[in-house]
Amino acid sequence: MDKTIDSVHEFFPEVEKISDNELRQKVLRTWLEAWKSSDYDRLDQIPFLHDDIVGINNVEHTRAVTIMCIQFADTLKKFNNITMNMDYLIAGAILHDLGKIFEYSENPSKLGSLFTHPISAMYFATKEDLPLEVIHIIETHSLEGELVKRTPEAAIVHYMDFAYAETVLRAKTDTSTGERMKFRVIRTGP
After folding, report:
1. Closest C-alpha to 129, from 12, 17, 13, 25
2. Fewer CB within 10 Å, N or C, the chain?
């Protein structure tokens, strides 16, 4: 598969829900530049978890989290009249796990060895001059985000990401033994 903007768009059709065309293009270019810098031929080859214990790829995970974020924000608006910056929310959700392209590589680059996936994703988002609010969502979606106050959009991405991960892991429980699959973080660097 050719590494093009159109290919990235095919993997992440939810990008169309970003109303600001300039932001939409920046999101697509951010994924494209990271992909071009990686050793993956296709974006759907990136695992959701390092050792692929659940058989879900990162594109499936990212799309599910993005849709969950949109639906949750819509629910807040409907029942509580709370509005979000939907463009930032969607952009952050689509980009939140971009760094897994380096962290989970079979042959990790220096970037993937030295930094966690939120940090390498922030690096590429910064290169494309994405708004700081979107970069904040990327930074705080993971456990590193416990150290700062999250914006409402960042809180949504964080909780939807963890709800998805926890639910998938529980659904993959070996019911014959009652033993839950173990989630483990593998660092490839020093």
Report:
1. 25
2. C
